[in-house]
Specification:
Helix content is 74%, strand content 0%. The chain is an all-alpha fold and 199 residues long. Helix 4 (62-83) packs antiparallel against helix 5 (89-126), helix 4 (62-83) runs antiparallel to helix 7 and helix 6 (130-146) runs antiparallel to helix 7.
Length: 199
């Protein structure tokens, strides 16, 4: 009988597991927003035509915004990455993904109630293109956490990482997060501003 300290986590279909957590929490956010009610969303909602319109002419210091986002995003990413090397990662990673999904579901309903179809497009645009890089980063963390046996192809020039695929995944995830923060600070505001001015 193996000792408790040597027991391994059971193999999970981790991609489907994380996708299921995302969808479940996303719909929980939608249900919560519906439970709050249309009247309260209109009264205290984060999106309305007036405040969104002010964003079209707001001046943004992109470098300061980048540093602010980097500090904020890296705290959560660092915590998740740290726990991915422990058994608690099985709770932490789905929890982080679930919270983002819950917030997104809630925000979708809020946008739909306050601004109709334009609000839905605004929410979608507000998470693009950085969402692709953030998803790739947390995918790498999931790969580390659930430890699939498949080999990770190493680009030329970093052959020293051949026997440390988890380190390669961690570095790749880190770079994806930094690139995602850069996109969120410099590219996303331009896309949002252009869209809002045409609304």
């Amino acid at each position: 009988m193996p000792r408790l300290g040597l027991m391994r986590l059971p193999r999970l279909p981790w991609k489907g597991f994380l996708a299921g957590c995302f969808l479940l929490c996303f719909f929980a956010g939608i249900l919560t927003a519906n439970w709050v009610g249309q009247e309260k969303l209109l009264q205290y909602g984060m999106l309305n035509q007036y405040y969104v319109g002010q964003l079209a002419y707001a001046e943004l210091d992109c470098s300061a915004y980048f540093l602010f986002l980097l500090k904020k995003r890296m705290k959560i990413f660092g915590m998740t990455a740290l726990f991915s090397y422990t058994r608690f990662g099985v709770l932490v990673l789905p929890g982080v993904i679930g919270w983002y999904a819950f917030s997104l579901g809630y925000l979708f309903v809020n946008a739909l109630v306050c601004m109709k179809f334009q609000g839905m497009l605004l929410v979608l645009l507000s998470i693009f293109p950085q969402i692709l890089l953030y998803a790739a980063a947390y995918f790498g963390i999931g790969r580390i956490l659930f430890g699939t046996k498949t080999e990770v192809a190493m680009p030329t020039g970093i052959q020293k990482l051949r026997y440390h695929p988890n380190l390669f995944l961690l570095l790749s995830a880190f770079l994806c997060m930094v690139a995602g923060v850069w996109m969120e600070a410099y590219v996303n505001p331009l896309l949002l501003t252009n869209y809002i001015r045409r609304m």
